[in-house]
Amino acid sequence: MSTHDVINPATEETVRSIDLVGVEETDEAVARAVEVGPQWRGLAPADRGRLLRRFSAVVDDHLEELALLEVENAGHTIGNARWEAGNVRDVLAYYSAAPERLFGKQIPVAGGLDVTFKEPLGVVSVIVPWNFPMPIAGWGFAPALAAGNTVLLKPAELTPLTAMRLGELALEAGIPEGVFTVLPGKGSVVGERFVTHPDVRKVCFTGSTAVGQGIMRKAADQLKRVTLELGGKSANIVFDDSDLDAAAAAAPMSFLDNAGQDCCARTRILVQRNVFDAFMERFEAAMRDVRVGDPGDEATQMGPLVSAGQRETVRGFVENSDETVDVAFRGSAPEGDGYWYPPTVVLPTSTKDRVWQDEIFGPVVGVMPFDDEADAIAKANDTAYGLSGSIWTRDVGRAIRVSRAVEAGNLSVNSHSSVRYSTPFGGFKASGIGRELGPDALDAFTEVKNVFISTDN
Ligand code: NAD
């Protein structure tokens, strides 16, 4: 059995060595998930709901422990990590109401009664990236379990600890063995096996666009269902009629949260030309106040990057790039051990620049002027991605027009919020296929069955 050393990204110390699951154990887990499927989906809806509520309560009881584990494993700030553990609790509580509300339809037809059912798919796999190990896991497993599926979860190689603990907490809450199994392992081994195993009926994947494309190609062999939540390069559009102080004050954390390792990070700031300088002055002042450092400190706003490799990737866009990158200003970051990288603001000269087009997944933002509403929309949409974005304006009509015109799944006006567990989340274009969260996520984990009952016999 191969092992993986989990490293604390703020100290570079080894936290723990974990055994990685191989194909054989994955197949065994699939077989167990198939075996317990009928029992889980056959539970009375109220009982399944009750078990999910208990799971939610157990997560809540262990909230601080889970949060501290994420600080240690992923370098998330303690404030973020508490929110993330709380999000798992809330998503479980939200979907615990679903088993009793998994409504079908009664459709008027001649000669009988026609009804639809939302049937579980069977065994559902969830593949999670390293950037938000807890929430992204919960967005998959909570609705999947609520809909009556059994679930196999593969955390990212770098960040398995909270997922493994959640697997234990599920058992503690009374979720039967085999219904929810966490399999720490490699993407090329466990993840691939999810895609090729005929008894796994769905792959719910969050990660890079390239890996997502590969999964979709291979899933086609079995017409396997996929949900793909992929990369992003979201625009933050600041109009001249906005509250410029508020827009500039909010801009730093819109791309520095989680050290920029956030698929929704607003990494392309578009500022109307006539307020560009006024915005930059305020933005630079706001950047000076951002506290980068020990993620365990309550006052810290940004911690380290997750790994040495990720820091090299980020450097490759700024310091070691083939293109000339004009750095406008930078924040500070600790020196010494830990995968630190300072908040960095760059001024691309063209929308074709790599820093402007590619997802960097680090604390780097580009700022560019635009002329008018049409130019802002064109520039915002000049990307392969379409996950999220923000619009700062006091003009309600403009807010609505631009929100409708930007090709992205999650937009916010005068705010940078992207994710609420009760509203749908997902991407346009290369940012993915399907939606998670909100009332409709259950559709992604069920098949509609139509039954006609004749009244003539
Ligand atoms: P990644 O694609 O390298 O890995 C994601 C997961 O897929 C990991 O668990 C990995 O082990 C697994 N994997 C790798 N190769 C696989 C294969 N061949 N078959 C099956 N599984 C495989 O991504 P990452 O670097 O861990 O995460 C960062 C990416 O995730 C970024 O691009 C980011 O934008 C994206 N992301 C998207 C969202 C969203 O909701 N749209 C949310 C968070 C992160």
What do these coordinates show?
This protein has 457 residues and is of the alpha/beta class. The chain folds into 2 domains: 3-230 and 431-454, Aldehyde Dehydrogenase, Chain A, domain 1 (3-Layer(aba) Sandwich), CATH 3.40.605; 235-420, Aldehyde Dehydrogenase, Chain A, domain 2. The protein is built from 14 helices and 18 strands. The strands form 4 sheets. A 7-stranded mixed β-sheet has the order 12-13-14-11-10-15-16, sandwiched between helices. A 6-stranded mixed β-sheet has the order 7-6-5-8-9-17, sandwiched between helices. Strands 3-4-18 form a 3-stranded antiparallel β-sheet, with no helix packed on it. A hairpin with a 6-residue loop joins strand 1 (3-7) and strand 2. Helix 9 (244-256) crosses helix 10. The mean pLDDT is 97. The chain binds nicotinamide-adenine-dinucleotide. Nicotinamide-adenine-dinucleotide is lined by residues 127-132, 136, 154, 156-157, 187-188, 191-192, 195, 206-208, 211, 214-215, 229-232, 263, 359, 361, 387, 427, 431-432. Keywords: Oxidoreductase. Belongs to the aldehyde dehydrogenase family. The active site is at 229. It comes from Knoellia sinensis KCTC 19936. Residues 3-451 form the Aldehyde dehydrogenase domain.
